[in-house]
UniProtKB/TrEMBL annotation:
GO CC terms: cytoplasm
Protein's UniProt name: Protein-export protein SecB
Xref: PANTHER family: PROTEIN-EXPORT PROTEIN SECB, PTHR36918
Assembly with partners or alone: Homotetramer, a dimer of dimers. One homotetramer interacts with 1 SecA dimer.
Compartment(s) of residence: Cytoplasm
HAMAP family: SecB
Polar residues compositional bias, start-end: 1-11
Organism of derivation: Pseudohongiella nitratireducens
Function: One of the proteins required for the normal export of preproteins out of the cell cytoplasm. It is a molecular chaperone that binds to a subset of precursor proteins, maintaining them in a translocation-competent state. It also specifically binds to its receptor SecA.
Origin: domain of life: Bacteria
GO MF entries: unfolded protein binding
Region listing for Disordered, in residue ranges: 1-24
Residues spanning the membrane: none
Keywords for the protein's UniProt record, in alphabetical order: Chaperone, Cytoplasm, Protein transport, Translocation, Transport
Amino acid sequence: MAENENTQNTDAQAAQQEGQQQGPSFALQRIYLKDSSFESPKTPDVFRGQWAPRISFNLNTSNSKVSEGVYEVVLRLTIEAKQEDNVAFLCEVQQAGIFTCDGFNEADLERVLATVCPNILFPYARETVDALVTRGSFPAVMLAPVNFDAVYAQSKQQQQNGENGAAAQTQGAAN
C-alpha cells in the first residue's frame, strides 16, 4: 500500500511539473542601449540667460520577433528642452531588450510586449537620459515613472474608437 501512495505522489508531481512546463514562460535575456543622441545646437548662448525651459517628452515602443518565442523590444524616448524659441537640447535614447515570451496567446503576448517589457526597460532609459543631459551641462531631467498599462489601455481604446468610427463612416457612406 505504501508503494501505491508513492506511485500516486510521483504521478501527481510529474503531472504538476508538466503543467508548469507547458504554461507561458517569460524571461529577460539582455538589456542594451541600442542608440543615443544628444544635441545642443545653441550652446554656449543658451547658458547666458535664466534657465526656464519648456520640456517636451515623447515615448514610444516597438517590438520585433528575433526567433521563435524571442522578441526584441525597443523603448524610444525623446526629450526636447526649448528656451524661448531656441532648442536648448534634444536627447534621444533607444533602450532595448531581448525577452523570451513563450506559450502566450496572441492577446497576452501583445500586452506583455507593450507593458511588461517597457516597464523593465524604462529605468535604464531614464538613467541614460539623465546622464546625457548632465554631461551636456544642463540640470538633470528626472523623468516621472510611466504607467505602461494605462498607456496600453488608452491605445487599445483609441483603436476601438477608430474602428467604430470607421465602421460608422462606412455605413453613412453606403446610405
